[in-house]
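Thread: Modeling a multi-component assembly for a lab meeting

Hi all, long-time lurker, first post. My supervisor asked me to bring a structural picture of a complex we are working on to next week's group meeting, and I have zero experience with this. I have the sequence lines for every component (582 residues in total). Could someone generate the structure of the whole assembly? Inputs are pasted exactly as I received them:
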Amino acid sequence: MAGILVFVEQRDGEIRRTSLQALSEARRQAAGRGWPVSAVLAGQGVTAKAAGLSAWGATKVFVADDPKLALYAPEGYAAVLTKAVELAAPSAIFFSCTALGRDLAPRAAARLGVGALADVIGLSLDGDRFMARRPVYSGKAMATVSCAGKTPQVISLRPNVFAAEEVGGSAEVVALSGLELGIRAEVKELTKAAGGELDVAEADVIVSGGRGIKGPENFALIRELAAALGAAVGASRAVVDAGWIEHSHQVGQTGKVVSPSLYVACGISGAIQHLAGMSSSKVIVAVNKDPEAPIFKVANYGIVGDLFQVVPPLIEELKKLKA
Amino acid sequence: MKCIVCVTSVPDTASVIKISGDGTHIDETGIKWIISPYDEYALEEALKITEARGGEVTAVTYGPTRAEATLRDCLARGAHQAIHILGGEATLGDSLTIAKVLAAALTGRGYDLILCGYKGVGTDCSQVGQMLAELLGIPHVSNVTKLTVGDGSIEAGRDVEGGQEQVHCPLPALITAQKGLNEPRYAALKGIMAAKKKPVEKIEVASLGINEGADPFFTIHKLELPAAKTAGTIIHGEEDPQAAAAQLVKLLRDEAKAI
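Re: Modeling a multi-component assembly
Sure thing. I ran the full set together rather than chain by chain. Output:
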């Protein structure tokens, strides 16, 4: 047997977009080899969503529908995955490299006794072996790596790098039941951030603020620009350490490493640690009053000027464009 | 509470990375090695827990001779003892082998809580902790920014996209520490002096029954620097910020097709 098995994430019973990206990439990679693509889905009341994954290329969907799996449980989800691996005997398992994928993929890989590759941004096949490109040293270097030893190869794909592509089709749904979940670490509750803010790790557009915004109150301006672009709010380490905004917003070597299609840096000079975290973004815009700021070396477009004078008209122009 | 903290040495985050002649490793010339920043949160949390509840902190690392400096740093900050598993150069980035080495070294030692950094700032895999927990047969909580230790269990807050998972987990367990968990202390001079007298147990990796590099789970084929960015378009907005903003939006829409 061969093929690719994709772990599909849900939150509140809704399939997450990043999983559709992983599923689509699995379909593209499998096509050349004539491999089947299957998916595995765990949650509560998710059976109804399973068949719909066929539209994204899955021909078989394994479903574990159990109240104990409504919220993420590393050991329970690993048990579900292990069962699906036993049934599908895939050559590779794809995850999305999200908070859940980062947690589950290595635990499952250790259970299966196989190697795992995290945060992959490019894939190709060499025979049956995946050659993966992934940033290391937070993007200061790029590595080409592969799993060695026995299969399946466990591969986690960075969100928003691989395109989700709807193709249609039909899938067989296989219910997984009677599993020994063995849950010890138990998520009691998922508390959501106020205002349901978009996370920088998942966002396709990010607007970040740095020391140049002068004070925590001025994140209001950054948020306004982010809203005009439908973007998530990011920040430099300096302002996170100063307590102006929570760490979950930090972009950089000790924060999140991101590659959105548009990254707008406002009042960020561009320390090497920050550049490491965002320089793989497709289009980078910098607004800074210092023409010598290192951020301009990686920016596709830069405005040299006072951000407090540049950002408000920028918001107006963007609103005009939308109207 | 017996706490074990797994630490790793990484290039200082301010380092400029260069590729070595073999094309698969970094050039270590001039690199300053530091404790991986996330491991500092793991160590600090272990120190806080044992200060409040009694117990001891053991720092463990798997790395070459130079990695002893990282252990001395942990001892200087307050760890009671350290274990140095010598090796690791042939297994860089091979998370499962690293986890197997650590599991072999820790089996039979007795522990309530194992703490790791959320990732090693370098290979950036974020995998060893979860794999180690699985190999040791204990539960884990990763990406922890909030921790309360009770009798026989922990309550942990784990950061996820757009929120936090509140996790209950029985001990023994493993956590991986994320920024926000605490404010790591620096080593004081007194601690640095005391660290020199604290015990560091040396273990040869072969004595754990592991033949480094013989059965890898991971291969690194190539390491290269990212493509250099070509010079971008700079708009001078000092005089007329309004016009600069309008020009930028036009470029983003018509040229970059980014909006």
